[in-house]
Amino acid sequence: MRLVMNQPAERMDRPYARRWWALLVLCLSLLIIVMANTALTVAAPAMTEDLGLTSADLQWVIDGYTVPYAALMLLLGAIGDKYSRRGALVLGLVVFAGGSVFGYLADSATTVIAARAVMGAGAAMIMPATLSLLAATFPRAERAKAITLWTATAGLAIAAGPLVAGALLEDHGWSSTFLINVPVAVLALLGAFVLVPPSKAADRGRIDYGGGLLSVVWIAALVYMIIEGPHFGWGVKAVTAAVVAGAGLVAFVLWELRHPRPLLDVRRFADRGFAGSNLAVALFFLAVFGAFYYLTQHLQFVLGYDALDTGLRMLPLAGAVFVGAALTGLLTPRVGMKWTVTAGMVGGATALALLARVDATSSYGDFVAPLVVLGLSIGLALSPCTDAIMGAFPESKLGVGGAVNDTSLELGGSLGIAILGSLLATSYSGHLSDATTGSKLPASSLSTAQDSVGAGYAVAQGIGDKARQLAEQAAHTGDPQQAERLRTQAEQLGGGARQMADAVGSAFSDAVAHTSLIGAVILGVGTLVVALLLPGRPKAAEEEPVEESRELESAGTR
């Protein structure tokens, strides 16, 4: 067994016998990457209160993970291809676990953001390594099934993060949510050495570090612009980032077109299937991350569920992802990826359209159907796209292929939170302003309440607390006239607190509906573009040369 384990996957004459156990390790590694973000959504309120985070601080706590994660994937994927994909996975798990411990010990906004950045760097090693190891370990006939399970794991993590974090928050502080990742990372680390075969590219040519550096610059600048502009305004920072991103992208494309061994052959994007698959991944996660961002807020703030209850109520989405994944495994080989991907994207747009019916009277039952439809759509659409993207790369570039898929995913998710999150904030502020027009509430309180739904309910609670204090004073004063004045003030403030709470809930519900409608339109238009780009049937003639090239490269290493 030791001889088999030390033999690289690419040099094995037969498929690796323990490949399904190896897939479990890769899925565990993927699980913590996705959970790191979804768990934070339920821990954010407690973290904000404990550390006194501003809205800008909280935004960068969330996105401090995203910038290094998205920016470093292409370069780190190429380095993993050359030296060791399993080594990249192992090192990434160590860095990720270290960042998680750092986050647990953090006691300020700065240190939490730094910890999240370290975790993002670890995720940038792990994510492309999981896909490249999967593609190198599984024969082509089984790869689609393996990628389907990999995709279903991402859907599970979307719901598992809030659920596990919510359970921890019942008895522990927000910092405990960082420790969710550590035991899973340790388990995956041990499994990587025991179950995952070593793997690296047969062609050990020099890495295009120039292209790698340019990719880091333009992707980091683009993600920074996506975060900074919609949330904090299009000032000097956002405009500068936009210029750097544009210039960096142009320089990257020109460099790669002229380089004899480019980090990423940008000519691949001229292939309609490859371009359509990447666009579908980006658009889908724009919708998924954006919707998840405001759904968790609605469940917690408007419907009043605690962190654990919020996690439990996201489970229908996770279950539906597995059903959708099973369906796509049956349907894609028969009807082609164009139809399953298009059907999945139509389903995603439908889920958002269903959320457009949300109003102040909506209960959790009104969210079940959109969650189920969205989960089915994720399972149906994403694994065929990932399979198509990975299939476009030869064995020597599997890490880069995984990085391209994951960069599309992360850019789409960042855009979703930025665009839909910005639309949500603007719509909420406008609706709340309309709802409180003519009220006798202090202007400063109204302005604070417009910042976010959490701030709105905090203002309402503060007014209510003041009303209760006045009522208690009235009950203990010996002066009847003063007691009457205090009771009158308490009643007025109590009515104002109820008015504010009702207005906040109604405004946020209307904002969710408005944002979901726009999201449905964006995804609907994108679905038409993707449907035009994707081929109608898998082209076997195009797959054979790719497989043949892998066999030739593997043969050269024997």
From TrEMBL:
PROSITE patterns: MFS (PS50850). It holds the Pfam family DUF6381. It comes from the Bacteria. The chain crosses the membrane at residues 59-80, 87-106, 112-135, 147-168, 174-195, 207-227, 233-255, 276-295, 315-332, 339-356, 368-390, 411-430, 511-534. Keywords: Antibiotic resistance, Cell membrane, Membrane, Transmembrane, Transmembrane helix, Transport. It is found in: Cell membrane. The keyword Nucleotide-binding does not apply. Residues 22-538 form the Major facilitator superfamily (MFS) profile domain. It is a multi-pass membrane protein. Residues 539-558 have a biased composition (Basic and acidic residues). The keyword Cell membrane applies. Its main location: membrane. Residues 538-558 are annotated as: Disordered. PANTHER family: EXPORT PROTEIN, MAJOR FACILITATOR SUPERFAMILY MULTIDRUG TRANSPORTER MFSC. NCBIfam families: efflux_EmrB. This is MFS transporter. It comes from Streptomyces indiaensis. The lineage of its organism: Bacteria, Bacillati, Actinomycetota, Actinomycetes, Kitasatosporales.
